[in-house]
């Protein structure tokens, strides 16, 4: 993926604070143990839930059962956002990714992503690949990736607000 256009919004930062690099925002996404996914219910109300993620190039990857609320929401409207960071005011980096969730079904790609989950989260998150999905303990999980269209980084030491716009 090409480097995004990066824009610092000085209205929301401390004087002299610079923009966050996409490399730093990407590292925050890759290292996050937990992220928050927001999807839209069919009536337009938001639904937010915590989940674990891995990175696939610059895209954030997550799983959901097709019968779960987020799975049902994505079947109607694939637009979503993922958020991660800290709950601290004066330290850390918060990152928000906005985009469209696309289901991953290719067997080889799924095996690569299953290995990424295992490497990041260990044996409790060992997935098998079967029929275009992850399986574990008799459960089926669809795999989605969200390539960012826009992302935001909120740095806190010093405070700054950076927007990343992605081509395509």
From TrEMBL:
Gene3D superfamilies: Electron Transport, Fmn-binding Protein, Chain A. Residues 25-135 form the Pyridoxamine 5'-phosphate oxidase N-terminal domain. Pfam families: PNPOx_N (PF01243). One of its GO terms (molecular function) is coenzyme F420 binding. It comes from the Bacteria. The keyword Oxidoreductase applies. SUPFAM superfamilies: FMN-binding split barrel. Keywords: Oxidoreductase. Signal peptide: none annotated. Residues 1-21 are annotated as: Disordered. One of its GO terms (cellular component) is cytosol. PANTHER family: HEME OXYGENASE HI_0854-RELATED, PYRIDOXAMINE 5'-PHOSPHATE OXIDASE-RELATED FMN-BINDING. This is Pyridoxamine 5'-phosphate oxidase family protein.
